[in-house]
Amino acid sequence: MDKPAILGNTPVFDDRLGIVSPRLPKLEQIQDPLSEALRTGQLTNHAFHVPQFEKALSDRLKMPHVVSVGNATLGLILALEALNRDGEVILPSFTYCATAHALYWSRHKPVFVDILPDTFTIDPAAVESAITPNTAAIMAVHIYGHPCEIDTLEEISKRYGLPLLFDSAHAFGSQYQNEPIGQFGDAEIFSFHATKVFPVGEGGCITTHDKNLAEHLKLSRKFGDPGDENTRFPGMNAKMQEFNAIIGVEMLKVVDEHIANRRRYAAYLIERLGRLPGISFQSIKPNVFTNYQNFVILVDEVYFGVSRDMLFDALLAENILARKYFFPPLHLHDAYSDYRSINLPITEFVSKRVLCLPFYSEMTEKMLDKICVAIEQVHFHANIVREYYSNLA
Ligand code: T4K
Description:
By secondary structure, this protein is of the alpha/beta class.
C-alpha cells in the first residue's frame, strides 16, 4: 500500500476537499422568482416567498405551525424566551456552541449533562438526575441528524411538567418511529444554514403544535409588532429573507433525493472503513431514520495505530479537510469556564475521538474511494506516521 502524503507521497486529492459542499438549485430553476423579487424590491418582511416556504414546510413536516427565522440560533433564543420560565436548562455539552449560547441570550443557565455512548445523543437518565426545582426546560439535540430517545424524553418532560425543546438544526428529513422530526416536544428548531442537509444560506424554522406559541414566535421574530406599530413586547428582528425562501422552496423538491444519496454513501463508508481496526461509527437505532447530516468516525488510537488528531493532520496532507465536530465539548470552551470541572466522561471520551469526514449530498464513487484509501494508508503505515510525529515533538 502507498505511503500517506504526510510521509512525502502525492496527496490523494489534487484540490482541497472541504467538509461540506452545498448542492443548491441551478440559476435557471430560481430565475423567475429571483427576478421578480429584484424587480419589485420586495426582499423581506414575509412578503410572498417566505409564507410560501412556510406552507410547503408545514405540509412536508405534517405540522400545523412552522415559523421561519433568520437562522437556528435566533430560533433557539426565541423558543427559549417564549417559554417565559426563568432558571436552568438541561442540555448536552456535546453539541455546537449555538445550542448553549442561545441560553445566554435568553437569560437561562446551562446545565450540561452526558450523552449516550452509542448514538451520542443526550442521556435521558442524566437528564432526569439533573432536574431540580430550578429547572426551566430540557433542550435535546438530534446530533448529526440522529434523533434523540424522544419517547423517554417526552415521558420525563410530562412527568416533571417541564417544557421540552429539540435543537433539530441537524435533523431536517430525519424520522423517529416513521414520523418526521419536527413533530416532537414543545417545539423543534431547524437550521437551513449553508452547511446543512437542507441549505438556503442563512435560515431556520421552529415547528410546534401550539398555536399560541406559534403566534408569540411570529410576533417576537418581528420586533413584537403585530403590524399596527404598537409593539406588544420587545421582540427582535429574526426574519427570514425572500431570497432564502426562494432557494428553500426549490430545495424541498430535492432534499429526499439528497438524503437517499447520503444514506447510500454512508453505507459504503461503513462497510469499507468498518474493516479497519479502531474505527467505529455513530450507532443508528432501528426505530430512527437519519439524514446523515454528518458522517462521523471514532478513532481508537490503540487499535487504529494513530490518534484522531494525527489522522486529522494526515488527511489534511491528502487535501481532505475533516472536522472535529464537536471538540472540545462546550463545558471545556473558555466561554463556559465555570463548568470546566464537571464530570461528563462519555462526552469527553467521544469528543476526543470523533472525526467528521467530508460528506456531501452528491459524491462520486471515486471521491468516496479516495477518502477510504487515504484512511487505509494511514492505518497501514501507522508505525511510521507515529514515528514522524515523535520526531516532530
Ligand atoms: N445547533 C446545532 C447543533 C448546530 O450545529 C448549529 C450550527 C446551530 C444550532 C445553529 O444553526 P445556525 O444558527 O447556523 O442556523 C458551521 C455552521 O456555521 C453552523 O451552522 C453549524 N451548526 C456548525 C456545525 O458548522 P463552521 O464554523 O464549522 O463552518 P465553516 O464556515 O468552517 O464552513 C464549513 C465548510 O462549509 C467549509 O468547508 C466551507 C463550506 N461552506 C461554508 C459556508 C459558510 C460552504 O460551502 N458554503 C458556505 O456558505 O460552522
